[in-house]
Amino acid sequence: MTNELQPVRGTRDLIGEDQRRHHHVVETARRVAAGYGFDEWTTPIFETTAVFARTLGETSDVVTKEMYTFQDRGGDSVTLRPEGTAGVCRALVSNGLTQSLPQKVFYAGPMFRYERPQKGRYRQFHQIGIELIGPSEPLADAEVIACGWHIIDALGIAASTVLEVNTLGDRESRQAYRDALIGYFTARKDRLSEDSLMRLDRNPLRILDSKDAGDRAIVAEAPTIAAYLTPEAAAFYDTLRRHLDRFGVPFRENPRIVRGLDYYGHTAFEFVTDALGAQGTVMGGGRYDGLVAEMGGPHTPAVGWAAGIERLAMLLHEAPSVPGTVAVVPVNEQAEPAAIDALQQLRRAGIRAEMAYRGNMRRRMERANRIGARAAVILGPDDIAQGVAQVKDLVSGTQEPVSLDALADRLK
Ligand code: ATP
Ligand code: MG
């Protein structure tokens, strides 16, 4: 293969076990989220660049370094979506749904970020996410987190993740905290990374999220927001923690969690793991009351999270197995029409069934064994004339005649 026909760096094909893991994560999340009353939305994979540039915050890593932005043939600047929330809020406004609240949205699909590829970090990756748009009560935050926890639990990986929560307070708390951080970091300016120096004037909270080792040592001693919370913000956080207990969601507090994007306030949280090396965050989210207004809608409170499907898939203890298949085996070509009838009867009943496209009976039985079929339905002219097929259990080896109309019932 010439180099230009290789997959693009940071992209991967999902085939076999990888695809089954991926699918299992999405299906589990979809089912659990539906139980919490979330409806699925599908928004476009690309949007006008402004949808992301205006809303994710000009100091976020995503906007400064990671977006796939290009001019289309009409000269418009468009961007492959780096995350799902901005598109959902854009869709809320474009579809005139800002007066029909609450909206409870689930989504799943590919996201694109120009990052350095490594284990658990790709340029095309996939997220599941939920957004609860409308309520401003901490009960909404707690329910959104509970839904995320429920999905992680349903995937059987709750024991390898920890939920960390924090509050970013209201605007007034954040302003006071911001001033305190500017004072603290300015005094240590000469030891900060270049990225963090840039954040110092624009959004010093983001320094808390820095992955630079030098920054992290400084961050470890930085003041926390607790002392700067207004009574209202403190009460919001108290209520959130009380509700989380009631929902039965275990968590610990981590005052360093700020989230990578600029639009968050009050609740910020992450599900982290130490099983994936540096890529330790599997799910992250929080409250973003300002975003819908940024998108041109009315002031609309909202809370949500997104999770990386690849990272969740890697944490699954075992790959979901392929469902057992039934092999339909005509003993010769004359038996093929009856075999096709049997095949379709099984498939209509939801049973996975396959028939080889050629070969004598021996060859077809060999293939049935090779694909790990659980049973074979063998059709010969004499049996067909009597209205039966031989059903062979390929696990126990036993065989019995079964009426042709009763195949699906027998193999259910
Ligand atoms: P990180 O700190 O790992 O860069 P982030 O803060 O940029 O994550 P979010 O924007 O909050 O991540 O996205 C939510 C989730 O999406 C992450 O917790 C992670 O599981 C997943 N994710 C983000 N970027 C990537 C990527 N490049 N490849 C694979 N998964 C990703
Ligand atoms: Mg990132």
Structure description:
The chain contains 15 helices and 16 strands. It has about 400 residues and is an alpha+beta fold. The chain folds into two domains: about 15-170 and about 230-315, Bira Bifunctional Protein, Domain 2 (BirA Bifunctional Protein, domain 2, 2-Layer Sandwich), CATH 3.30.930.10; about 325-410, 3-Layer(aba) Sandwich (Rossmann fold). It has an eight-stranded mixed beta sheet. Helix 1 (about 15-35) packs antiparallel against helix 5 (about 140-155), helix 1 packs across helix 11 and helix 5 (about 140-155) runs parallel beside helix 9 (about 230-245). The chain is elongated. Bound molecules: adenosine-5'-triphosphate and magnesium ion.
Brief summary of the model shown:
By secondary structure, this protein is α+β, with helices and mostly antiparallel strands.
Which terms would index this structure?
2 domains, 15 helices, BirA Bifunctional Protein, domain 2, alpha+beta, binds magnesium ion, 16 strands, elongated, Rossmann fold, binds adenosine-5'-triphosphate, five-stranded mixed β-sheet
List the helices and strands and how they pair.
Layout: H1 17-35, E1 39-40, E2 46-48, H2 49-56, H3 61-66, E3 68-71, E4 77-80, H4 85-94, E5 103-112, E6 124-133, H5 138-154, E7 162-167, H6 171-186, H7 194-202, H8 213-220, H9 231-247, E8 252-253, E9 265-272, E10 281-287, H10 291-294, E11 302-308, H11 309-315, E12 326-330, H12 336-348, E13 353-354, H13 361-370, E14 375-379, H14 381-385, E15 388-393, E16 399-403, H15 407-411
Parallel strand pairs: 1-5, 7-8, 12-13, 12-14
Antiparallel strand pairs: 2-4, 3-4, 5-6, 6-11, 7-9, 9-10, 10-11, 14-15, 15-16
Helix pairs in contact: 1-5, 1-11, 5-9
Magnesium ion is lined by residues 61, 260.
